[in-house]
Design a protein that fits this description.
By secondary structure, this protein is an alpha+beta fold. The protein has two domains: 81 residues, no CATH class; 243 residues, no CATH class. It has a seven-stranded antiparallel beta sheet with strand order 4-7-8-1-11-12-15. The longest helix is centred in the first third of the chain and has 57 residues. The protein is elongated.
Length: 338
Amino acid sequence: MGKLIISVLALSVVSCVAGFSLLYETHANGHLTKWGHIAAILTVSSFVLGVAAEIYKLLERQSEKREAQSKHFEQRHQLGRIEAEVKASTKPLLPVVMDCTFRFDIKPETAKKVFQDVRGFGTANTSMLRLMGTATIGEVLPRNSIEFDTRESHCILEDNILDKKLTEHHYMVNGMLYMVEAAFFLKGHSEWPKLPTITLEHSYVATVPREIKRLELFDSTIFRSDLIGNWTARSIEGSFGLDDLVDARLRFRFTTIGDRSPFSIHNLHVFFGPKSSQVGVAFPSDILAQAKFGPSDDQTFASFGNEMAREMFMQYRLELTCDLSKEFVSNKFIRIVY
Protein backbone atom coordinates (compact mmCIF):
# COMPACT_ATOMS: atom_id res chain seq x y z
CA MET A 1 0.00 0.00 0.00
CA GLY A 2 2.92 2.36 0.73
CA LYS A 3 4.31 1.81 -2.76
CA LEU A 4 0.95 2.73 -4.26
CA ILE A 5 0.84 6.04 -2.35
CA ILE A 6 4.37 6.89 -3.39
CA SER A 7 3.56 6.08 -7.04
CA VAL A 8 0.41 8.23 -6.93
CA LEU A 9 2.36 11.14 -5.41
CA ALA A 10 5.02 10.80 -8.07
CA LEU A 11 2.37 10.90 -10.78
CA SER A 12 0.82 13.94 -9.12
CA VAL A 13 4.15 15.76 -9.17
CA VAL A 14 4.71 14.91 -12.83
CA SER A 15 1.16 16.03 -13.65
CA CYS A 16 1.67 19.29 -11.79
CA VAL A 17 4.89 19.95 -13.70
CA ALA A 18 3.04 19.29 -16.93
CA GLY A 19 0.19 21.50 -15.74
CA PHE A 20 2.51 24.42 -15.03
CA SER A 21 3.92 24.10 -18.53
CA LEU A 22 0.45 24.73 -19.83
CA LEU A 23 0.75 28.29 -18.60
CA TYR A 24 3.07 28.90 -21.54
CA GLU A 25 0.54 27.45 -24.01
CA THR A 26 -2.12 30.12 -23.57
CA HIS A 27 -3.33 33.10 -25.62
CA ALA A 28 -3.15 36.61 -24.37
CA ASN A 29 -6.75 36.27 -23.15
CA GLY A 30 -5.74 33.33 -20.97
CA HIS A 31 -7.36 30.58 -23.07
CA LEU A 32 -5.32 27.49 -24.00
CA THR A 33 -3.92 27.23 -27.44
CA LYS A 34 -4.51 24.14 -29.60
CA TRP A 35 -1.29 22.59 -28.36
CA GLY A 36 -2.23 23.57 -24.84
CA HIS A 37 -5.46 21.54 -25.09
CA ILE A 38 -3.52 18.55 -26.42
CA ALA A 39 -0.99 18.84 -23.60
CA ALA A 40 -3.79 19.06 -21.01
CA ILE A 41 -5.52 15.96 -22.40
CA LEU A 42 -2.26 14.02 -22.45
CA THR A 43 -1.44 15.14 -18.88
CA VAL A 44 -4.82 14.00 -17.51
CA SER A 45 -4.66 10.74 -19.48
CA SER A 46 -1.17 10.04 -18.20
CA PHE A 47 -2.28 10.60 -14.61
CA VAL A 48 -5.37 8.38 -14.94
CA LEU A 49 -3.45 5.60 -16.68
CA GLY A 50 -0.69 5.79 -14.08
CA VAL A 51 -3.17 5.46 -11.20
CA ALA A 52 -4.96 2.60 -13.01
CA ALA A 53 -1.67 0.78 -13.54
CA GLU A 54 -0.79 1.03 -9.85
CA ILE A 55 -4.24 -0.16 -8.80
CA TYR A 56 -3.91 -3.11 -11.19
CA LYS A 57 -0.53 -3.98 -9.67
CA LEU A 58 -2.07 -3.84 -6.19
CA LEU A 59 -4.96 -6.11 -7.20
CA GLU A 60 -2.54 -8.48 -8.90
CA ARG A 61 -0.43 -8.73 -5.76
CA GLN A 62 -3.57 -9.39 -3.67
CA SER A 63 -4.63 -12.10 -6.12
CA GLU A 64 -1.22 -13.75 -5.90
CA LYS A 65 -1.43 -13.62 -2.12
CA ARG A 66 -4.87 -15.26 -2.11
CA GLU A 67 -3.66 -17.89 -4.54
CA ALA A 68 -0.67 -18.65 -2.30
CA GLN A 69 -2.96 -18.91 0.73
CA SER A 70 -5.29 -21.21 -1.20
CA LYS A 71 -2.38 -23.46 -2.20
CA HIS A 72 -1.17 -23.52 1.39
CA PHE A 73 -4.64 -24.47 2.63
CA GLU A 74 -4.95 -27.16 -0.04
CA GLN A 75 -1.56 -28.58 0.92
CA ARG A 76 -2.56 -28.66 4.58
CA HIS A 77 -5.85 -30.32 3.64
CA GLN A 78 -4.02 -32.94 1.57
CA LEU A 79 -1.58 -33.59 4.41
CA GLY A 80 -4.48 -33.90 6.83
CA ARG A 81 -6.26 -36.31 4.50
CA ILE A 82 -3.12 -38.40 4.08
CA GLU A 83 -2.65 -38.46 7.85
CA ALA A 84 -6.29 -39.48 8.34
CA GLU A 85 -5.95 -42.24 5.72
CA VAL A 86 -2.82 -43.54 7.41
CA LYS A 87 -4.57 -43.58 10.79
CA ALA A 88 -7.64 -45.20 9.24
CA SER A 89 -5.50 -47.91 7.66
CA THR A 90 -3.68 -48.69 10.91
CA LYS A 91 -6.69 -48.30 13.25
CA PRO A 92 -9.81 -48.56 11.07
CA LEU A 93 -13.26 -47.82 12.41
CA LEU A 94 -14.96 -50.58 10.44
CA PRO A 95 -16.15 -53.31 10.66
CA VAL A 96 -18.56 -52.81 13.55
CA VAL A 97 -20.04 -55.64 15.63
CA MET A 98 -22.86 -55.06 18.10
CA ASP A 99 -23.51 -57.38 21.04
CA CYS A 100 -26.76 -56.36 22.71
CA THR A 101 -29.30 -57.72 25.17
CA PHE A 102 -32.90 -56.52 25.03
CA ARG A 103 -35.68 -56.83 27.56
CA PHE A 104 -39.15 -57.58 26.20
CA ASP A 105 -42.35 -57.98 28.18
CA ILE A 106 -44.55 -60.49 26.34
CA LYS A 107 -48.03 -61.87 26.79
CA PRO A 108 -48.34 -65.03 28.92
CA GLU A 109 -49.91 -66.92 25.99
CA THR A 110 -46.92 -66.04 23.80
CA ALA A 111 -44.52 -67.31 26.46
CA LYS A 112 -46.50 -70.54 26.68
CA LYS A 113 -46.45 -71.12 22.92
CA VAL A 114 -42.68 -70.74 22.70
CA PHE A 115 -41.48 -72.18 26.02
CA GLN A 116 -44.13 -74.66 27.16
CA ASP A 117 -41.97 -77.74 26.39
CA VAL A 118 -38.73 -76.16 27.62
CA ARG A 119 -37.18 -77.16 30.89
CA GLY A 120 -38.03 -74.68 33.65
CA PHE A 121 -41.36 -73.52 32.23
CA GLY A 122 -44.07 -73.45 34.86
CA THR A 123 -41.63 -74.42 37.62
CA ALA A 124 -41.42 -71.99 40.51
CA ASN A 125 -37.98 -70.56 41.24
CA THR A 126 -36.53 -68.41 43.95
CA SER A 127 -35.00 -65.03 43.19
CA MET A 128 -31.78 -65.28 41.26
CA LEU A 129 -28.91 -63.16 40.07
CA ARG A 130 -27.55 -63.97 36.61
CA LEU A 131 -25.15 -62.57 34.06
CA MET A 132 -27.12 -62.48 30.85
CA GLY A 133 -25.84 -63.64 27.49
CA THR A 134 -23.26 -65.96 26.00
CA ALA A 135 -23.04 -64.13 22.66
CA THR A 136 -19.94 -62.25 23.73
CA ILE A 137 -16.73 -61.28 21.98
CA GLY A 138 -14.55 -59.88 24.71
CA GLU A 139 -15.39 -60.81 28.27
CA VAL A 140 -13.19 -57.96 29.47
CA LEU A 141 -16.21 -55.72 28.96
CA PRO A 142 -18.54 -55.43 31.95
CA ARG A 143 -22.12 -56.67 31.79
CA ASN A 144 -25.19 -55.52 33.65
CA SER A 145 -26.49 -58.37 35.77
CA ILE A 146 -30.11 -59.49 35.68
CA GLU A 147 -31.81 -59.42 39.06
CA PHE A 148 -35.24 -60.95 38.73
CA ASP A 149 -37.79 -62.58 41.03
CA THR A 150 -39.45 -65.46 39.20
CA ARG A 151 -42.85 -66.82 40.26
CA GLU A 152 -43.57 -69.41 37.60
CA SER A 153 -40.93 -69.91 34.92
CA HIS A 154 -37.26 -69.58 34.22
CA CYS A 155 -36.12 -70.99 30.85
CA ILE A 156 -33.06 -70.65 28.64
CA LEU A 157 -32.97 -71.23 24.88
CA GLU A 158 -29.68 -71.38 23.00
CA ASP A 159 -27.76 -73.38 20.38
CA ASN A 160 -29.76 -76.05 18.49
CA ILE A 161 -32.86 -75.80 20.66
CA LEU A 162 -32.97 -72.06 20.03
CA ASP A 163 -32.67 -72.59 16.25
CA LYS A 164 -35.57 -75.05 16.38
CA LYS A 165 -37.77 -72.63 18.31
CA LEU A 166 -36.90 -69.75 16.01
CA THR A 167 -37.95 -71.87 13.04
CA GLU A 168 -41.25 -72.87 14.66
CA HIS A 169 -42.11 -69.43 16.07
CA HIS A 170 -40.31 -67.13 13.67
CA TYR A 171 -42.72 -64.19 13.81
CA MET A 172 -43.32 -64.32 17.55
CA VAL A 173 -39.64 -64.19 18.42
CA ASN A 174 -37.94 -62.52 15.49
CA GLY A 175 -40.81 -60.06 15.03
CA MET A 176 -39.78 -58.36 18.26
CA LEU A 177 -37.20 -56.50 16.16
CA TYR A 178 -37.50 -55.57 12.50
CA MET A 179 -34.45 -53.38 11.90
CA VAL A 180 -31.38 -52.04 13.70
CA GLU A 181 -29.60 -48.87 12.64
CA ALA A 182 -26.31 -47.48 13.91
CA ALA A 183 -25.51 -43.94 12.74
CA PHE A 184 -22.18 -42.18 13.30
CA PHE A 185 -22.00 -38.38 13.25
CA LEU A 186 -18.28 -37.61 13.08
CA LYS A 187 -17.76 -34.07 14.27
CA GLY A 188 -14.88 -32.96 12.08
CA HIS A 189 -13.63 -29.43 12.75
CA SER A 190 -16.44 -27.66 14.59
CA GLU A 191 -19.85 -29.32 14.80
CA TRP A 192 -21.74 -32.51 14.05
CA PRO A 193 -23.13 -32.83 10.52
CA LYS A 194 -26.89 -32.83 10.00
CA LEU A 195 -26.73 -36.19 8.23
CA PRO A 196 -24.79 -39.23 9.50
CA THR A 197 -21.24 -39.65 8.28
CA ILE A 198 -21.69 -43.43 8.40
CA THR A 199 -24.98 -45.34 8.58
CA LEU A 200 -25.14 -49.08 9.27
CA GLU A 201 -28.43 -50.94 8.84
CA HIS A 202 -29.37 -54.51 9.63
CA SER A 203 -32.72 -56.16 8.85
CA TYR A 204 -34.00 -59.34 10.45
CA VAL A 205 -35.15 -61.14 7.32
CA ALA A 206 -33.81 -64.71 7.62
CA THR A 207 -36.14 -67.64 8.31
CA VAL A 208 -33.83 -68.66 11.15
CA PRO A 209 -32.28 -65.39 12.40
CA ARG A 210 -28.69 -66.26 13.28
CA GLU A 211 -28.29 -62.92 15.03
CA ILE A 212 -30.31 -64.20 18.01
CA LYS A 213 -27.93 -66.14 20.23
CA ARG A 214 -29.89 -66.63 23.44
CA LEU A 215 -33.35 -66.23 24.94
CA GLU A 216 -33.89 -66.25 28.68
CA LEU A 217 -37.42 -66.20 30.06
CA PHE A 218 -38.40 -64.94 33.50
CA ASP A 219 -42.17 -65.53 33.75
CA SER A 220 -43.43 -63.27 30.93
CA THR A 221 -40.23 -61.24 30.46
CA ILE A 222 -37.64 -62.22 27.85
CA PHE A 223 -34.02 -61.17 27.82
CA ARG A 224 -32.78 -61.64 24.28
CA SER A 225 -29.09 -61.56 23.31
CA ASP A 226 -28.23 -60.62 19.69
CA LEU A 227 -24.90 -60.47 17.91
CA ILE A 228 -25.00 -58.26 14.81
CA GLY A 229 -22.12 -57.92 12.36
CA ASN A 230 -23.73 -58.14 8.95
CA TRP A 231 -24.59 -54.58 7.99
CA THR A 232 -25.63 -52.62 4.95
CA ALA A 233 -23.39 -49.55 5.07
CA ARG A 234 -23.75 -46.03 3.67
CA SER A 235 -21.13 -43.35 4.19
CA ILE A 236 -19.75 -40.15 2.78
CA GLU A 237 -16.50 -40.31 0.85
CA GLY A 238 -13.43 -40.75 3.02
CA SER A 239 -11.55 -43.08 5.30
CA PHE A 240 -12.40 -43.24 8.98
CA GLY A 241 -10.37 -44.48 11.91
CA LEU A 242 -10.88 -45.01 15.61
CA ASP A 243 -9.56 -41.52 16.35
CA ASP A 244 -12.58 -40.09 14.53
CA LEU A 245 -14.82 -41.42 17.31
CA VAL A 246 -13.52 -38.78 19.71
CA ASP A 247 -16.28 -36.14 20.06
CA ALA A 248 -18.50 -38.17 17.71
CA ARG A 249 -22.23 -38.69 18.19
CA LEU A 250 -23.72 -42.19 17.95
CA ARG A 251 -27.37 -42.88 17.35
CA PHE A 252 -28.87 -46.35 17.66
CA ARG A 253 -32.38 -47.13 16.42
CA PHE A 254 -34.19 -50.41 17.06
CA THR A 255 -37.42 -50.73 15.09
CA THR A 256 -40.26 -53.16 15.73
CA ILE A 257 -43.53 -53.78 13.91
CA GLY A 258 -46.95 -54.45 15.41
CA ASP A 259 -48.75 -53.74 18.65
CA ARG A 260 -45.72 -54.00 20.93
CA SER A 261 -45.13 -53.00 24.49
CA PRO A 262 -42.12 -50.76 25.16
CA PHE A 263 -38.84 -52.66 25.37
CA SER A 264 -35.44 -51.62 26.65
CA ILE A 265 -31.73 -52.24 26.20
CA HIS A 266 -30.19 -54.18 29.06
CA ASN A 267 -26.65 -54.50 27.67
CA LEU A 268 -24.96 -52.85 24.72
CA HIS A 269 -21.42 -53.68 23.63
CA VAL A 270 -20.05 -52.24 20.39
CA PHE A 271 -16.78 -53.41 18.82
CA PHE A 272 -14.88 -51.35 16.25
CA GLY A 273 -12.27 -52.46 13.73
CA PRO A 274 -10.79 -55.82 12.71
CA LYS A 275 -9.58 -58.32 15.27
CA SER A 276 -5.97 -57.17 14.84
CA SER A 277 -6.77 -53.72 16.25
CA GLN A 278 -10.25 -54.10 17.70
CA VAL A 279 -11.55 -52.00 20.58
CA GLY A 280 -14.83 -52.39 22.41
CA VAL A 281 -17.06 -50.28 24.60
CA ALA A 282 -19.75 -51.27 27.10
CA PHE A 283 -22.33 -48.53 27.47
CA PRO A 284 -23.21 -47.92 31.14
CA SER A 285 -26.74 -48.51 32.40
CA ASP A 286 -27.32 -44.79 33.01
CA ILE A 287 -26.76 -44.11 29.30
CA LEU A 288 -28.92 -47.06 28.24
CA ALA A 289 -31.72 -45.74 30.45
CA GLN A 290 -31.88 -42.60 28.24
CA ALA A 291 -33.22 -44.58 25.27
CA LYS A 292 -36.68 -43.38 24.19
CA PHE A 293 -39.47 -45.58 22.87
CA GLY A 294 -42.28 -44.35 20.62
CA PRO A 295 -43.91 -44.51 17.19
CA SER A 296 -41.47 -44.41 14.29
CA ASP A 297 -41.40 -41.50 11.85
CA ASP A 298 -41.53 -43.97 8.96
CA GLN A 299 -45.05 -45.39 8.90
CA THR A 300 -45.50 -47.32 5.67
CA PHE A 301 -49.05 -48.34 6.59
CA ALA A 302 -50.06 -45.20 8.47
CA SER A 303 -52.83 -44.44 5.96
CA PHE A 304 -54.66 -47.67 6.76
CA GLY A 305 -58.00 -46.89 8.37
CA ASN A 306 -58.45 -50.42 9.65
CA GLU A 307 -57.52 -50.57 13.33
CA MET A 308 -56.42 -54.22 13.10
CA ALA A 309 -54.11 -53.45 10.17
CA ARG A 310 -52.69 -50.46 12.02
CA GLU A 311 -51.93 -52.60 15.07
CA MET A 312 -50.30 -55.27 12.93
CA PHE A 313 -48.09 -52.95 10.89
CA MET A 314 -47.51 -49.95 13.14
CA GLN A 315 -43.80 -49.30 13.51
CA TYR A 316 -42.28 -48.40 16.87
CA ARG A 317 -38.74 -47.32 17.59
CA LEU A 318 -36.38 -47.41 20.52
CA GLU A 319 -33.76 -44.69 19.99
CA LEU A 320 -30.56 -44.07 21.92
CA THR A 321 -28.19 -41.16 21.29
CA CYS A 322 -24.78 -40.92 22.91
CA ASP A 323 -22.01 -38.30 22.59
CA LEU A 324 -18.53 -39.77 22.82
CA SER A 325 -16.45 -37.22 24.67
CA LYS A 326 -12.69 -37.53 24.80
CA GLU A 327 -12.96 -38.57 28.45
CA PHE A 328 -15.57 -41.24 27.64
CA VAL A 329 -13.44 -42.72 24.84
CA SER A 330 -10.35 -42.69 27.04
CA ASN A 331 -12.07 -44.37 30.00
CA LYS A 332 -14.57 -46.73 28.37
CA PHE A 333 -12.89 -47.96 25.19
CA ILE A 334 -10.93 -51.18 25.82
CA ARG A 335 -8.52 -52.99 23.54
CA ILE A 336 -9.79 -56.50 22.74
CA VAL A 337 -7.13 -59.20 22.64
CA TYR A 338 -7.96 -62.59 21.16
